[in-house]
Amino acid sequence: MSNREGFTGGFLTGVLLGGAIGTVAGLLIGSRRSQEEEDELLLSSQGSPEKGSTNQRQAANTDENIEANRRNLENKIAQLNEAIDEVRQQLHSVDRSAADTESEYTTAEDS
What we know:
The protein starts with a helix and ends with a helix. The protein contains 2 helices and no strands. The radius of gyration is 32 Å and the shape is flat. It has helices spanning 2-45, 49-110. The protein has 111 residues and is mainly alpha-helical. The longest helix has 62 residues, at 49-110. Helix content is 95%, strand content 0%.
């Protein structure tokens, strides 16, 4: 029994210590990335021709990518709607045939 209690205490200590270390590491990495992004934004807003043209190309590519993704999603939605319609038709025909079979069964019992 004492071994089990030692395991529980060690486990909880490990969880708390690991969580604290993970939190600190995440905050440090996150602050570095945000600082790099701020520096990049500052450089592009100062009118650096290399950065500005890259940002303009990225914006144009982003608009093109958004449009291509939108068209792709519309095609996928259309395919899904067709598949749903096919399944509905199949289920409707199965329901009809099951109802016909059931009505034939009840008619045979009544006779």
